[in-house]
Amino acid sequence: MHPFKRIALGLLLILFLPLGISLAEDPPRIGGGEARGWRSMPRHSAGLAPDPAAFADTAIVQVYAAATYGWRGYFAVHPWIIFKRSGDTAYTRYDVIGWGRGPVVRRNHAVPDGLWFGAVPAVLAEHRGAGVDEMIDRIETAIASYPHADEYRSYPGPNSNTFIAHIGREVPALQLDMPANAIGKDYRPLHDPVGRAVSGTGWQASLLGLLGVTVGIEEGLEFNLLGLNFGIDFNRPALRLPSVGRLGFDNAAPPAEAAALP
């Protein structure tokens, strides 16, 4: 076989194998899914957020991500962040929503740990207790400083993943490692192509989220080609793949008190 054909075949395998794994894990539903209409998809609590009343004296931060609605869910995720200060008996939720009028950053748009149009979220980061109130102060500052509050593009960004990635960069104590299929997390404008990785534990170079590389303790080594991310996580060994996100050890760490804030 000609070397060029071998390279092309290898690239196709790299691109479509993760999609095949994603489809195998969640086959398309006959007569369901998008045909039901997004308004009828369940949005109830997934039972992942600690009872805020029972933990009234505890400050808590959680970051979630769930498969996006419909066929896009085989390629990308939608993330959001919730938090409560010590003394609060309810959570505050923030995420970016691409439809509707006005600023795209929405407060309390949905149930704190609700299903995202039928998709069960996963916990990407969680912190409780000492130091978390101060972390929440920094999170709110990061939300207020988000530079794309009036613009949204599902691909390559800025989008909901760009928003949560911005918080991760501004608040390294979150120790946030977003999955490879969080398309938009690597979006950086042309005037700012190099900077801190999402986790705050490394660095990245990226052109509009379409071409780049990230190196970090949490992310490992990750390459971005046209918004598709490939890499390897050495911290919690796993392959970082498009569609799948990660293949290997779970990246969710147990709940922890906030890391020391610089």
From TrEMBL:
This is DUF3750 domain-containing protein. It comes from Thauera linaloolentis (strain DSM 12138 / JCM 21573 / CCUG 41526 / CIP 105981 / IAM 15112 / NBRC 102519 / 47Lol). The lineage of its organism: Bacteria, Pseudomonadati, Pseudomonadota, Betaproteobacteria, Rhodocyclales.
